[in-house]
Amino acid sequence: MDYGFTMADVVADNTSASRFVVGVPVTTSGVDLRLVGVLLEKNGEVVATASGAASLGHPAAAVAWLVRQLAAEDEGLAAGQIVLLSGGLTAAVPARPGDVVTATIDRLGSVELGCR
């Protein structure tokens, strides 16, 4: 499916993320985030795969971009702020009530979402 999001759409709805999950912190020391695999399943079937490199070549690149943009406006990040959304690694996947979506990130963990 081609959802045809424009940049204005993405900005208006917070990067297509109306919610997100924050778990316990995990260390990424020794993990090359460019090479970390992502597996997205819906109802037990693989619907998308990706790697960390899908986010501007490296997930940290999106965070670096944010820091540069904030600095250009004489702003910055405060200690303890969560900088989580480095960009979608997979395309959007439609979900309906009753669907169960699981995202597994190699070496970092997984999260499961039941849709109501």
TrEMBL record:
Provide the species name: Streptomyces violaceusniger
| A single MF term (Gene Ontology) | 2-oxopent-4-enoate hydratase activity
What is the protein name for this chain?
Fumarylacetoacetase-like C-terminal domain-containing protein
Spell out the GO cellular component terms annotated for this protein, sorted alphabetically and separated by semicolons: cytoplasm
